[in-house]
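Researcher: Good morning. I'm working through a list of sequences from a screen, and I'd like to move beyond sequence-only analysis. For each chain I'm collecting a predicted structure so we can compare shapes side by side. This is the next one on the list. No need for commentary yet; just the structure.
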Amino acid sequence: MAQTFDICIRGTGIVGKTLALLLARERLKVALLPAPGPRGAAAADVRAYALNAASRHLLESLRSWPDEEHATPVRTMQVQGDHDGAVHFDAATQGVDALAWIVDVPALEARLTEAVRYQPQVEWVESPVPAALTVVCEGRASSTRQEFGVDFQVTPYPQHAIATRLECERAHGQVARQWFLPDGILAFLPLGGPQGNSVAVVWSVLQDQAAPLMALPPEEFAKKLQAASQEVLGKLVLSAERAAWPLQLAKADRWCGALPASGKNPRSWVLAGDAAHNVHPLAGQGLNLGLADAQALAGMLQGRDYWRSVADVRLLRRYERERKAALLPMGLATDGLQQLFSRHEGPLQALRNWGMKGFELSGPLKNFVARQAMGIH
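Model: Good morning. Structure tokens for this chain:
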């Protein structure tokens, strides 16, 4: 007899595998289908994500949190404006062990893959299979989203992100650093554990600067980063290849819908993660939002009435409303900051630096923003 599935998840990235594990815990039978794409040798993944306390708790509940070497706690965050405006966040002030953890993507992927391997309710498949619910977790370039007729509304930024890794002369001291520069936004994220001296780099640069920077010899590129970071970590040496991609603000107009029924059985689809929304990386919240999607969808399906199918569109629309509402303030905040710091007029520069100084001294407002970003409500 052919295998039957409750849910087919298209996309096996971090969000897809996390959702598969959450659903399998509810005794749902899950098919996991890799997103379509080239099958050749993949380049080394240089990405790292800043994950908040909510994301850590979720991944720990699935026994998928990486060890300390691959999940470096951030004790302090320093944000520097393009003049003398600055904002500092400190874990001790917030009464927490860490503001966030900088997680190495390959290490997290490996832990999730291992967890999936030992979950009998999840099965890897090589092509789409019939299921009551299809969840699309294929990322920003999803082909299934297009197949389902979803309009993905994209607002491109005139910027590309460049990511790489650095070995630094000085230890990072568990400090995440960000500079709002006249020609872009630079972030150094601590790696290698509390005593480490390596960082992940995300450098958002003007579109026409990306190709020349990518073409520089490694030593010259490292010197550019050294100057942009004001040599705060001393001499820098590239320890990985560089990757670049265009930045965008994007959202799907619909996150769920019905599919043609299979006999008397209803079928539906729903979006999660980057297939549903993209935000600017300056706040480091992209994966936190995607993992929150997975948790909300799994919770919605777990708490459904016994007589409701997982394909119930009214249930899926409730998930869509909840997640759109949660996404809205983060999208507005990151877009507003990107727009503000991309302008070079004197009055705006003075305004934003005045604003950073005021925010630094704001007390309750600063604490509220910090706790929201940490996933503590």
